[in-house]
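WARN retry 2 of 3 for item q-0093 after timeout on previous attempt; input resubmitted unchanged.
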Amino acid sequence: LLLRHPLLRALGFAAIFFAGLEVAFATYVVVTMIERVGVGYVEAGLALSVFQAGGLVGRLAFGVIADRFAARRGLIATLGFGMAIAGFAAAGFGPGWPFALVLAVCFAAGLTSGGWTGVGIGEAARLAGEGAAAVGSGAMLMAMFTGVIVCPSLFAAIVASGAGYGAAYAALAVGAALGAVALLIPPGVRPAAEAS
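OK item q-0093 returned
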């Protein structure tokens, strides 16, 4: 279904990066706080808690927004760009950062990467059409779990290569931005290289 439906295909592509960023951020934020920002375990745990609180607020708030307004794809793309901004900000985490600013970035990352999920699954069900909502939702979850498996592993590989946490967060941010752009390309428009 993802391969046959252009809007679902774009949503599935974005879902790989969006879900991957969410899980990679949650997986590595504590160690990032300790190794890069230089805080203790309590503050590192607080950063993770703030990230998770952002996700809770985002899922509720963006669900309400999606119910009231019909531009769900645009909302999901906007959240993707928000994830990219948060990812690029996290790439700069270091000992000189005020901890309140670190927490703000964690909240923004959670708000956007957690906030898109319900809207995205709901949109996949809607796009799949009557009688195929379960298939659309299942296809979306398949794409999401691809990102959940691949992105944290890619993050670890980037850090282990010596490129560091900054490069790993930047890679997540680039993926989120690519996913957001994919959602904004009208379904009938393909890049020239793909069209030939």
